[in-house]
């Protein structure tokens, strides 16, 4: 549907730049806004969250890992990552890394949507960046920063692009009709599995750091979490690539599921530990956001609330109970519990999508092309399409299995390769000191140019009695 151009303007106004008939300025503006919101989740969102959620001596290093990844991913994504994900098929799991910076491509129409390719490149870059930064949450407090500098472009190229192409870029999972509205598998399952795998290869923090790792600023931590939550409006709201009805439903479901998850997580803490936890509230927020992501615009609101109940309880159980009991989890030092908040919650959301996906919403989002989506297993039972609903659930399981295995294997190979060039883990001496040893900087400089505060002067507070009052 082409937009009509304005031919007459009020007196004194000059016409703006020309635009093609296929461009819908409302959709274009919304997609650019959504891309900016997803970017803000990383910078400053996760920069602040990571910098404040770790021990004080690791605040600078943790925030810097996120900032570096954001910049590095942008370069790699524009040069080759986007086209490897969404370009012409080279194999069933990867596209050709064709050049993506030409004006002809960037200013051309994106498929049948009413916005240019440049919008979608930017939006998907923000997705790629936050995936790598989420992965970093498993590695905080001990990974060699120079190893991280090599790891980021390698992982983006060899692991992330494959997940994107197989599920969103006409790869073999998309052609089977797998449901992933906004990245439950592509982003969260992959970051959770890859982070856990990389944490195994990098090795643990110092034992006393692992046992005692308090946040250095909980108020800033809540601020970073707030950027993450509010930015998720762009995360899930940008996936329909338009400012339409599905977008509205996706936003409402996102926030409703998240709020429910927060309350359920806090309730579990109160029942089990007899007190609520600020960190627990943040974890419950994250699991709610992750769980609804693959289903945001294709489930009813009641289903979104039910998903919030499950995302606030099942990951809570795996993190707070199972993690402490199973030797498998104890062997790997996952600093911020990314495996539980993203891998577990991502799989949960993907499977629940295969159960609660509503047929008419699937048609509205995916269209009525050659690929068949759904119905969800529940609606398959209701509508007498049990086999179709069962197959959809199997496709969701198959997608989770592929993303898990691919990320575990490729992340391991990348870590082994990087370790041949530079040590994955910092020296023991640097681990004792932290930021000052690694970057020559500290998070909280009390005065001067990063200088340490001198020891306080000690005053004798005993009252002095004048000599003429003393008794001899």
UniProtKB/TrEMBL annotation:
Gene3D superfamilies assigned to the protein according to its UniProt record, in alphabetical order: Ammonium transporter AmtB like domains
Bilayer topology term: Multi-pass membrane protein
Subcellular location: Cell membrane; Membrane
InterPro entries reported in the protein's UniProt record: Ammonium/urea_transptr, Ammonium_transpt, Ammonium_transpt_CS, NH4_transpt_AmtB-like_dom, RhesusRHD
GO (cellular component) term, any one: plasma membrane
The Ammonium transporter AmtB-like domain, residue ranges: 29-444
PROSITE patterns: AMMONIUM_TRANSP (PS01219)
Protein name: Ammonium transporter
Lineage, top ranks: Eukaryota, Viridiplantae, Streptophyta, Embryophyta, Tracheophyta
